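User: Structure tokens for this complex, please. No commentary.
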Amino acid sequence: MTYFSSDAWYWPIIYIGIAGWIATDMWRWFGVIAGNRLKEGSLALLWVRATATSLVAAVIAKLILQPTGALSEFNIYLRVFAVAAGFAAFQMTGKRIVVGCGVALLVLLVGNWALNFQLITRTW
Amino acid sequence: MNSEISESQALISKSQAFWQGAKVVFTLPGLMLSGAMIGFAGFAVEVGLSRFEAVLMAGMIWALPSQLILIGSIFAGAALPATFLAVAFSAIRLMPMTAALVPEIKNSKTPTWLLLILSHFVAITAWVYSMDKTRDLPRNVRVSFFAGAGGCIWAFNTAVIGISYGIVSDLPLMAIGALFFLTPVYFLMTLWRSARDYSIYIAMVFGLILGPVFAQIWPEIDILLAGIVGGSLSTLIYVLIERSKGENP
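Assistant:
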């Protein structure tokens, strides 16, 4: 019953279909059924919305704190500071996402340059 | 024009709404997602999956963390039921996400079968985009908007995997970590802006704090725990505040 236990051409499709497609889409289907019953303004919808929001916020935190790839090369405190600076700029400019992203990126790059510069000068 | 329809809700056809949604493909997080999908294709080549298998997995699962768990499980030689459980466990978050989106986009005439089909496209990028944008649209075209956003980003990126398979082996995109940084920043601000009331702000703050906390305590289910605990606490706080104001939530 493992992925490699059959040579039949259709076996990967069955395996991925059950362990991939059904295993993920069943939650989406449950979500449709549950969401269909939620009334606008109900406490249940309030909870579902808050739960989904907390969940996505946790994903956002993970992407910043535990990134994969090159982003992990940047100092973790710098990353958090850059996000905070970007968010502050976003708030101050009437929730303009372009400004927030621009400031966050700028702080990250300048901060990284400054940190590396410090490292280089220290080794002198 | 009906004076009760605000400027932003001016009459818009379903196909216009569909293509408005489709624009998500070329937003910053949309393009970053394509970068991540090229990375996925490279990973598939590395572990020895065929192009067909890589496209099939991405198209059928359409949730990158679950795709990686499926591959890990396959190459660990796991039996089908064990893999099913591992993948299902990683995808529970899709349920509250879908449940929150559905009341946002459907109208009284939307058939359930259509929502069941479209729910396949629920994943973080299209979800955040639609939660933010659909509220400015009249209700009768919101499903079309999500179909455009979810369907196009799915179709485009599934194609990206098929095309980039075997071509991009070295993942030059991983070198631009600074740009990948913009995806969570963009999500953060979009989600914040899409809030209708302060319960969402509280929920976001809880998620941002509890996510890293649970990642230390119980990393296998950190996201799910942060969602349920954070969502419940913020609902409780919101209800208590509203009660003390003497209003019904």
